[in-house]
Amino acid sequence: MQLDVDITGKTFQNAAGERHEVLTGLKFSLQSGQVAVFFGPSGCGKSTMLRILLGLDHDFQGHVTRPAKARAGMVFQEPRLLPWRSVEENVRLAAPDIDETKLSALFKLLELDAHRSHYPGELSLGLARRVALARAFAVEPDILVLDEPLASLDDALANRLREEIAMLVSSRTMITLLVTHNLDDAVRLADRVFLLSARPARILADLPVRTPRHARGDAEIAAIKASILRRASIAVADRSVS
Amino acid sequence: MLRLLSFVSFLAIWWVAAAYADGTKLPSPPAVLDVLLAEARSGELFLHLGATLARVALAFALAMTLGGAIGYLMGRVRLANRLGDPWLILLLNLPALVVIVLAYIWAGLTEVAAIAAIAINKLPTAVVTLREGTRALDRSLDEMATVFAMSRWRTFRHVILPQLAPYVAAAARSGLSLVWKIVLVAELLGRPNGVGFEIGVAFQLFDTPLLLAYSLTFAAVVLIIETLLVQPFEARASRWRPRAA
Ligand SMILES: Nc1ncnc2c1ncn2[C@@H]1O[C@H](COP(=O)(O)OP(=O)(O)OP(=O)(O)O)[C@@H](O)[C@H]1O
Ligand SMILES: [Mg+2]
Question: Is the model's pTM score more than 0.90?
Answer without folding.
Answer: no
